[in-house]
């Protein structure tokens, strides 16, 4: 082995210690030097170690939380397309309730010697999760990029949509239509995107309406992500007399529309609903959904570029890149109805809903 190291080192014009580090896949070797050693192996007819052969296959991990929400397949598709010209192929890992967890997928990806991992809405977005799992990956070193969910204590590139601005734009849109009693439906508060949406909603409601702090609290409903969570939260908010609903995802917005219809209310005649993501097919729902568009294509391309730069040794800045959302106005929002009240009739309760 000593002679082999010497031959390889001479061919690559590096030290034997450097050859050893490359063969054992250890950190601290520049990408061009690592490539020179691998080329020397090939030229001299030596077989590459298995771990290095696998890594040369050009695999990267892509971990997404689910496929039920159409926004995640959209991310996966564009990331795959953006990776193709770079020579890398994604290994898609999808979590399901009661199925394989993120950490188990990561172990599988490490066994395959992937060159890097993109996490979309992973545990990095959960403030209650232990982020030591990511520090261990970064220390290997393994290039990682995080999409949607910022953890300032992790030295990695983060790609996010500006959730705070999205909530503010949604409130401004509904206020311009004459709505004042506007509810917010989103997921559990431990997630960074949820915290930002709540902050943006609260700031805009304070700025644009005269709703009290106590009312803001009762107009905010944190529920489970998905259609069912949106429906349950909307049912509670309809009891409180809202005329507009801002939802943390498009599936939640569809659940809110279902809750309104179960009460005999029409969207948008009686209640306006705003979604979030502009996931595929939202333009074809009944009614077509007004939503905050997440710039998935731009975010996915940026994530791929950051990952490939990290893999090639050109470290991307370890900070958060914020992408601006876009308000897409369709048929689920309209001018707030002004209830016609008989002057001789008693004043209705603020919780009453005009049908």
Q: How would you sum up this structure in a few lines?
A:
With 355 residues, this protein is of the alpha/beta class. It is built from 13 helices and twelve strands. The strands form two sheets. The chain has a six-stranded parallel sheet with strand order 2-1-3-4-5-11, with helices on both faces. Strands 7-6-8-9-10-12 form a six-stranded mixed sheet, sandwiched between helices.
What would your notes on this structure say?
The structure is a single chain. It is built from 13 helices and 12 strands. The protein is elongated, with a radius of gyration of 26 Å. Residues 340-355 have low confidence and may be disordered. Strands 2-1-3-4-5-11 form a 6-stranded parallel β-sheet, sandwiched between helices. A 6-stranded mixed β-sheet has the order 7-6-8-9-10-12, sandwiched between helices. The chain has 355 residues and is of the alpha/beta class.
Q: How many runs of DSSP E, i.e. beta strands?
A: 12
Task: Using the CA coordinates, give the radius of gyration.
Answer: 26 Å
Strand ordering within the main sheet:
2-1-3-4-5-11
- Give me the secondary-structure category: alpha/beta
Q: Which descriptor suits the 3D outline?
A: elongated
Q: What does the average pLDDT come to?
A: 89
Q: From N to C, what is the helix and strand string?
A: HHHHEHEHEHEEHEHHEHEHEEHEE
Supply the number of helical segments.
13
Largest sheet: 6 strands, parallel
Poorly predicted residue ranges: 340-355
What portion of residues belong to β-strands? 5-15%
Work out the helicity level. 40-55%
Distance between the termini: 84 Å
């Amino acid at each position: 082995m000593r002679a082999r190291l010497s031959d390889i080192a001479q061919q690559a014009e590096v030290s034997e210690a450097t050859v050893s580090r490359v063969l054992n896949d250890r950190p601290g070797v520049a990408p061009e030097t690592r490539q020179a050693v691998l080329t020397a192996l090939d030229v001299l007819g030596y077989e590459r170690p298995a771990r290095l052969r696998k890594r040369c296959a050009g695999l990267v991990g892509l971990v997404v939380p689910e496929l039920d929400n159409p926004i995640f397949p959209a991310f996966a598709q564009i990331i795959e397309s953006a990776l193709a010209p770079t020579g890398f192929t994604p290994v898609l890992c999808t979590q399901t309730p009661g199925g394989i967890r993120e950490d188990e997928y990561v172990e599988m990806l490490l066994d395959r010697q992937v060159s890097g991992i993109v996490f979309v809405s992973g545990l990095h977005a959960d403030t209650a999760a232990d982020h030591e799992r990511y520090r261990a990956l970064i220390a290997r070193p393994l290039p990682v990029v995080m999409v949607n969910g910022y953890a300032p204590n992790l030295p990695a590139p983060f790609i996010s949509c500006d959730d705070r601005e999205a909530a503010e734009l949604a409130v401004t849109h509904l206020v311009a239509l004459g709505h004042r009693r506007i509810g917010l439906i989103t997921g559990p508060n431990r997630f960074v995107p949820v915290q930002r949406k709540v902050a943006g909603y609260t700031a805009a409601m304070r700025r644009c309406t005269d709703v009290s702090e106590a009312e803001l609290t009762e107009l905010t409903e944190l529920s489970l992500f998905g259609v069912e969570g949106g429906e349950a939260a909307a049912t509670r908010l309809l009891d409180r007399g809202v005329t507009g609903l801002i939802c943390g995802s498009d599936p939640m917005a569809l659940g809110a529309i279902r809750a309104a219809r179960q009460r005999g209310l029409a969207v948008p005649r009686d209640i306006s609903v705003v979604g979030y993501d502009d996931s595929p097919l939202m333009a074809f729902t009944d009614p077509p959904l007004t939503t905050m568009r997440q710039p998935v294509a731009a975010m996915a391309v940026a994530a791929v570029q950051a990952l490939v730069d990290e893999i090639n040794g050109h470290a991307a800045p370890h900070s958060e890149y914020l992408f601006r959302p876009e308000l897409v106005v369709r048929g689920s929002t309209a001018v707030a109805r002004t209830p016609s009240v008989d002057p001789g009739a008693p004043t209705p309760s603020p919780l009453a809903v005009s049908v």
